[in-house]
TrEMBL record:
Organism: Phytohabitans rumicis
Keyword terms of this UniProt record: Hydrolase
Pfam families: DDAH_eukar (PF19420)
Entries under NCBIfam families matching the protein: DiMArgaseDdahMtb
Stated family: Belongs to the DDAH family.
Gene Ontology biological process terms in this record: arginine metabolic process; citrulline metabolic process; positive regulation of nitric oxide biosynthetic process
InterPro entries per record: DDAH-like
GO molecular function annotations of the record: amino acid binding; dimethylargininase activity
This protein's name: Amidinotransferase
Residues at the active site: H160, C254
Length: 261
């Protein structure tokens, strides 16, 4: 995770961002700290990446890489405003002794990749359509040695996979069907017939931009409908307020890069 010390909405590169809407950086820091405390309180170790000036989106740490089996497939951001973030993430992974592979293709890390180790022998779901190029899916498959299933995103507000789909445990997902093309919806129905499906209200409340340890599911406090669906499915929802970070187009998952050493 990376604290939002320099967070602001200084430009608009997704439909959620509005440069005319004020951002309370102090409140964003408090909300971020509460998320960090929630994760550590659930027994998880949180590594903190040092934020850098002029990189206001560094708080969305999930976009910096995608790690499986101790190998981090690095990010190559689409928009120039975020390009330098990839350098900081590379330094983090390499300083911790993990293998880092620099990408040749445009991709935005866990923003567009999800890993399900118990699904079909260890499946990677990968989004494209707005940020990550589909060619990066083949590159990720080569780097990580895991099968990758490409899913096309078609709704601009759901510009990253992690706004429209989430791994709930090692083999189950939740997703918002309308964010995907009809062929991709058919693929998801075939692969995950028992998935938890979100409605419009769930998705627009960032109810799928969540982090789950297989039992506890940490998600945006506005997503009360999604929380109930998760509880009905046997999970324990944990609601966290992230109203300021939502202004930049992200919530819980965007703030958390999951490490799989």
């Amino acid at each position: 995770m990376c604290p939002p010390e320099y967070y602001e909405v200084a430009y608009a590169i997704n439909p959620w961002m509005d440069t005319a809407t004020p951002v309370d950086t102090e409140l964003a820091l408090k909300q971020w700290e509460r998320l960090r405390e929630t994760l550590t309180g659930l027994g998880h170790t949180v590594h903190v990446l040092t934020p850098e000036a002029n990189l206001p989106d560094m708080v969305y740490a999930a976009n910096g890489a995608f790690m499986v089996d101790g190998t981090a497939y690095g990010a190559r951001f689409k928009h120039p405003q975020r390009t330098a973030e990839a350098i900081a993430h590379r330094a983090f992974y390499e300083s911790n002794g993990w293998t880092y592979v620099a990408p040749a293709q445009t991709n935005e890390g866990e923003g567009d990749f999800a890993f399900l180790p118990d699904a079909y022998g260890g499946l990677v779901l990968a989004g494209y359509g707005f940020r990550t190029e589909v060619a990066a899916h083949a590159e990720a498959q080569d780097v990580l040695g895991r099968p990758v299933v490409s899913l096309r995103l078609v709704e601009p507000r759901f510009y990253h996979l992690d706004t429209a789909l989430a791994a709930l445990d090692d083999g189950a997902i939740a997703y918002y069907p309308a964010a995907f093309s009809e062929p991709s919806q058919r693929v998801l129905r075939q692969l995950f017939p028992d998935a938890v499906t979100a409605d419009d209200a769930d998705a627009h409340a960032f109810g799928l931009n969540l982090v789950s340890d297989g039992r506890h599911v940490v998600l945006n406090s506005e997503a009360t409908g999604m929380a109930q669906k998760l509880a009905d499915a046997g999970y324990v929802p944990v609601l966290v307020e992230l109203s300021e970070l939502k202004k930049g187009g992200g919530s819980v998952k965007c703030c958390v890069a999951e490490l799989r050493p």
